[in-house]
Amino acid sequence: MAKGHTITIEEGDLHVRVVHDGRVLAESDRPLVLRETGCPVRYYLPAEDVRLDLLTPSDTHTHCPFKGTASYWSLPGAPDLVWSYPDPKPDVAAIKGHLCFYDVEVS
Length: 107
Hints:
Metal Binding Protein, Guanine Nucleotide Exchange Factor, Chain A; single chain; globular; 7-stranded antiparallel beta sheet; mainly beta; 3-stranded antiparallel beta sheet
């Protein structure tokens, strides 16, 4: 990691729900909570808790020097709404097999 840049990942005990246009896209009681310097807290949800059948893979890929290359999924009218790191860097290997959404409800 770059000096002063940290990423921590811990198992969360919160209920995380993702709703878009009234449709539940994901719901999980076992999120990974990722905290990264300069970024909002993100909740990575196990793929089994995400309605992958509602999402379409996107051609978008971005690269993070700390996490690796992200792949994205879209909904009609909501491009690149979801992302994951299929082959994350070793320091964040725990997020493999998990997806992250921009907007979530946490309780």
